[in-house]
Design a protein that fits this description.
Strand content: 15-25%
CATH class: Alpha Beta
Number of strands: 9
Number of domains: 1
Radius of gyration: 17 Å
Shape: globular
Distance between the termini: 38 Å
Number of helices: 8
Length: 248
């Protein structure tokens, strides 16, 4: 079973090496690694070239943002399973992809998997700031503000082909909309891997300031609307409030 990992980059020279090394160090060897760069102006491309053919495919050209870049990667991916790893994130150890593959191989009906994630300090990545424990998904989980950590979300390629890619018009909520679409609208079967597999640096785009948070709030509501789903009046409010528990 081939696993494709896609990383979108733009001016990621300060973090991309940790990301790449965590993929290349995996003990599961049937891995295709695709990096889609948005024509970086810093040293990102020079770093990518250092790895030569160890990175399966490198695309560098102007794009329309992270999710547009990820969609390009999905379209060319040859893997049976596709995972997304952000350029400032990295796998916690060398066993991650092998354990993800084992979940899919154990049960052919599983179409998506997800796990837990740690937020770490942007400079001192050994310092854990928040722990995101996803827990088991149930039908009404989204209604209560639930969402699995997107970088831990792996999907069979055939699911993307049948139900569509990311919707870049949803901004930073594009990942929320995709997972909502697959799990809540189309009822795709998801399996939970109950352990932490990724370290994510603090400083995501949707949490940078009040304006960014307001845009994310509006796009979260749009995610339900475009899928012809109706949230409860408290659903979108609970989504950011659930993060408070991750600090304890």
């Amino acid at each position: 079973m081939k696993i494709s990992i896609i990383t979108a980059t733009y001016n990621s020279a300060s973090t991309i090496r940790d990301c790449i090394e965590s993929v290349l160090s995996q003990n599961y060897h049937d891995v295709e690694y695709i990096i889609v760069d948005g024509a970086s102006q810093d040293n990102t491309l020079a770093i990518l070239k250092e790895y030569g053919e160890r990175i399966t495919n490198i695309i560098s050209e102007p794009d329309e943002g992270m999710y547009h870049a990820i969609n390009k990667g999905i379209c060319i991916a040859a893997g049976d399973i596709i995972g997304i790893l952000n350029s400032d994130d990295f796998y916690i150890d060398e066993n991650v992809i092998g354990e993800v593959a084992a979940l899919f191989e154990k049960d052919a009906s599983v179409e998506c998997t997800y796990a837990d994630l740690n937020y770490v300090d942007a400079q001192n990545t050994s310092k854990i700031i928040r722990k995101w424990k996803a827990g088991q998904y149930s039908h009404r989980s989204f209604m209560y503000g639930w969402m699995p950590p997107h970088p831990t979300f792996f999907v069979r390629k055939e699911v993307y082909e049948k139900y569509g890619l990311y919707n870049p018009e949803l901004g930073t909520s594009a990942d929320y909309e995709l997972i909502l679409r697959l799990l809540e609208r189309h009822k795709r079967k998801a399996a939970y891997l109950p352990r932490t597999i990724i370290h994510m640096r603090m400083g995501g785009a949707s949490n940078q300031d009040i304006l960014a948070r307001w845009k994310a709030f509006k796009n979260d509501r749009r995610a339900w609307k475009v899928n012809q789903l109706k949230p409860a009046f408290y659903t979108i409010l609970l989504k950011p409030l659930r993060k408070l528990g991750q600090f304890f």
